[in-house]
Amino acid sequence: MPTSLLLVEDDPRLREDLQRHFLNRGFGVNACATGPQALNAVQHNGFDLVLLDIMLPGLDGLSLLDELRRQQAVPVILMSALGAEQDRISGFTRGADDYLPKPFSLAELDARVDALMRRVAFDRRPAAPTETGKVMLDQDHQDVIHHGKAAGLTASEFRLLATLSAHPGEALSKAFLYQTVLHRAYTRLDRGLDVHVCNLRRKLADIGAQHVQIQAVRGQGYILVDTEHL
């Protein structure tokens, strides 16, 4: 089945351009011009993704986001020409999955959409314990266990290890990891991912799992290597 998209944008030209773009990509698109129209669509249909403008007539995008989050966990990308930091913060704290400042290119939009849909598919996998390098990823407790010792990972550290474990032998780009793990876009001045990698390395060493290594690949990103099985 095609990915179902709810597009909420009051600018008629941009709405038509985006609708045509996603229809050409094979999406099923329900395009709305106002918040009340979008709320009605959500109440009568299920969507895989919502692309939501903040400045809307009748019911603004953040208020609509509040209503969405009371009803379902559909992934939401906010769009706004405002660009203020407080708008981005408000969007994330109220449950947005990503934020795209206007103007944006279709290439960037596609990259954001694809990264978000990959993360959603990953998060919805059946929660079953998995093993990496003789350590167990405990999905229920969002932690890693080695010889009965839990590392005490944060949610972001667990997502980082689980994401790397799901792609054995593959170097994952920082752009992909930022979207999947930290739920934000990558910028070269942002060192957040590097801090999480450092903390995760230390916690793996603390439980005696030094053989499970997160190695940097120059110009690419990070890769998970089990040195006991090289």
Tally the beta strands: 12
Largest sheet: 5 strands, parallel
Mean pLDDT: 85
Would you identify the CATH H-level superfamily of the largest domain?
Response regulator
Uncertain stretches = 126-130
Features:
4-stranded antiparallel β-sheet; alpha/beta; 230 residues; 5-stranded parallel β-sheet; single chain; Rossmann fold; 12 strands
Task: Explain the overall architecture.
The longest helix has 18 residues, at 106-123. The chain has 2 domains: 4-123, 3-Layer(aba) Sandwich (Rossmann fold); 130-229, Orthogonal Bundle (Arc Repressor Mutant, subunit A), CATH 1.10.10.10. The protein is of the alpha/beta class and 230 residues long. The strands form 3 sheets. It has a 5-stranded parallel beta sheet with strand order 2-1-3-4-5, with helices on both faces. Strands 6-7-8-9 form a 4-stranded antiparallel beta sheet, with helices on one face. It has a 3-stranded antiparallel beta sheet with strand order 10-12-11. The chain has 8 helices and 12 strands. The protein has helices spanning 12-24, 35-44, 61-71, 85-93, 106-123, 155-165, 174-182, 192-206, and strands spanning 4-8, 28-32, 49-53, 76-80, 98-101, 130-132, 135-138, 143-146, 149-150, 172-173, 212-217, 221-226. Mean pLDDT is 85; it is low at 126-130.
